[in-house]
Amino acid sequence: MEKEHDFISERTKWKRQIYRIIFQADTKMGKLFDLVLLFLIALSTFIIMMESVKIFDAKLHRLFVILEIIITSFFTIEYVLRILTIKNKKKYIFSFFGIIDLLAILPFYLSLFFPITKYFLILRMLRMLRVFRIFNLLDFMNDGKFIVNALKSSSRKIYIFLLFLMIFCVIVGSLMFMVEGHREGFESIPQSIYWAVVTVTTVGYVDVSPGTQLGNFFSILLMLAGYSIIAVPTGIVTAEMRNKRQNFELVCSRCGNEDVDDDARYCKICGEKVV
């Protein structure tokens, strides 16, 4: 992890103070700032949802607009201060939280020209991830990284499975197009593929259903296959997580070192083989 002097200017005292408040939560002002930030995020999300309800929007539209302007102004000033007080500006701007901070204010200014884009302000909810830092719940973030790493490791297997699923749905959809004989909902192969995807994922919108006995037979087979197909990616990820956990819990039998990397074959302290 980078040290504080890698980020902020050593010459400017006010930048250092603002940096501690905005970027860190180890002071009373820092925690208070983050709590206010979370409250405004929750309030903004609530306003956006209420604006989509015609009854509330008709009665409180002006109040909603005023509150949104105040909240967005606060977020804009905060974003500018983050850029001003940090030394490595480019690294912050293109980081995960930097992009989220930008997305928290950008839809509001776009909505001045394209009103429909204001609903993208719901992306501000992503900023709630800062709650882990505020309440010292970094262990939860580590568990999240553990899951992400397992997903990355199993991504190839999942891609192959998705490719197979796409081919399977196209074939079944084409067969249903021939079986149903251009009935309603099966007028074209793309529509039949839509039915196959809805059926194999066990969603079942019931907006399209086969009308022939052979079509119903295919539906039964597809529904039964759907339960098995859905379990495949879950099993792939679970197996990968188990492998990651076993590697994560490796302990050197000679020196007792518990800090063993996931891909390590030898202990970094004494050189004993651990795998």
User: Which percent range describes the beta-strand content?
Assistant: under 5%
Report the average pLDDT across residues.
Answer: 79
Q: Which residues form runs of ≥5 with pLDDT under 50?
A: 1-6
CATH class of the largest domain: Mainly Alpha
Record field, number of beta strands:
0
User: Roughly how many Å apart are the termini?
Assistant: 28 Å
Number of helices: 11
CATH superfamily of the largest domain: Voltage-gated potassium channels. Chain C
- Kindly give the count of domains: 2
Structure at a glance:
With 275 residues, the protein is mainly alpha-helical.
Describe the structure.
With 275 residues, this protein is mostly helical. The protein has helices spanning 13-23, 28-51, 54-85, 89-93, 96-103, 106-111, 131-134, 138-153, 155-180, 189-200, 213-248. Helix 1 (13-23) packs across helix 3. The protein folds into two domains: 4-136, Four Helix Bundle (Hemerythrin (Met), subunit A) (Up-down Bundle); 151-248, Helix Hairpins. It starts with 12 loop residues before the first helix and ends in a 27-residue tail after the last helix.
Task: List key phrases describing it.
11 helices, mainly alpha, 275 residues, 2 domains, Four Helix Bundle (Hemerythrin (Met), subunit A), Helix Hairpins
